[in-house]
Predict the structure.
Amino acid sequence: MSQNIKIDPYGFREYDARWLYEKDINQSGIENLGKGLGTQIKIHTKKENPRIIVGHDYRSYSEEIKTALKKGLLSTGCYIEDIGLSLSPMVYFAQFNLDADAVAMVTASHNENGWTGVKMGIKKGLTHAPEEMKELKEITLNEKFIKGVGNEKQIKNFDKIYKDDLISKNKIKKKIKTVVACGNGTAGVFAPDILRGIGCEVIELDCNLDWNFPKYNPNPEDLEMLHEITKVVKENKADIGFGFDGDGDRVGVIDDKGSEIFSDKIGLLIARNLSSKHKNSKFIVDVKSTGLYSKDKILLENNCETIYWKTGHSHIKRKVNAEKALAGFEKSGHFFFNQPLGYGYDDGINSAIQVCHLLDNQNKKMSEIISELSSTFQTPTMAPFCKDEEKYLVVEELVEQIKNLKENKTEIDGQVINDILTVNGVRFSFEDGSWGLIRASSNKPSLVIVTESPTSDGRKKKIFDFIDDLLQKTGKIGEYDQKI
């Protein structure tokens, strides 16, 4: 690789690519990424001039990154259709609506300023999975590029087509009073319009675009953002509060009393709401999600099946597609609705719309609906630092240790492990439905830890202490981002 090209191999993650701009990748590096992606698209589509939808989020440097990426794509012979300032789901939607061959969305989603990245996909509605990312990395780093002659056109006002598509299918009867929080990210120019369009009364919170993110990152798992929404919901006596992430594919939900509802519980409520109309459906949830799905009586009455699968929007999306599931729910707030509700990709605004349908269908407040679920004590998603080059090995060792504890019937808070799921790290469960999870983060140098107990807060903490003890003994764990 010539010396003025900078591209850190670790930026190629499991299902997207993310770098600190100019520290880990420079403009020539981005251009090479475009050449690599263009080459990969041509190999997979077997077309001389595949059509690719390109969009970007609202960060100060996203346009210049998009320009460099497009330069690379053009050099391979791609025909670019640039839809401008976008949300990730708008780019995914455009691939269906314009019947294109691939997508490339310039975004670092909710990461701090300085980060950039690209979400990519070839098969409609799906984003790159680990095998495609690996292939892209090899093409790009070894500069095995195909040359061609591309062209580019700007698609004007595509945002209107995207908004109208969601509005026209989803009118509601009730006037639901909704706080819409966007953390000054790109969703600010989309979510309020769409939710007003379906019939909500909208109270906007930080919906003006500001790429400095003056208050906090647009991240619905960020407690600061959630606390702010809570305050505004209470002040306005709103029915519901929604918080959207930087590129609009995730949503966080606050009920009418100002309480945060973890996304996995929202998913369960939506699944219940859908199950009576769509009996015998399958739902996919990720391994960070509540254990309540597997024993939920309404889902079981409607003969619906829940499959726990690997965390990560690409993995859940593919599983929803492969299983022809009706929907998929990820703990981080990525929800996927398959036909007839959507095209299978994650769209935070469509997710918020499904919550509005839930409220529209029932003569109850959100807090009453949520209280019908069994309560569980659940930790937030905690991320202790662990080096990228060590995290997967650390998790492998811990999987073995936990298997041994199960075999030896070692008790944790008076209970033995009765089930282990290893599709993604290790999720170990107990007789009472309590569980703990240890996995490697797919987009940061850290592990991911979650615990839940339907029995008591104390048990939830005991399981966390047990995990933390295992982690500390490895000697390879740094600070947590947040801790219970």
Q: What stands out?
A: Residues 161-371 form a domain with the Alpha-D-Glucose-1,6-Bisphosphate; Chain A, domain 3 fold (CATH 3.40.120.10).
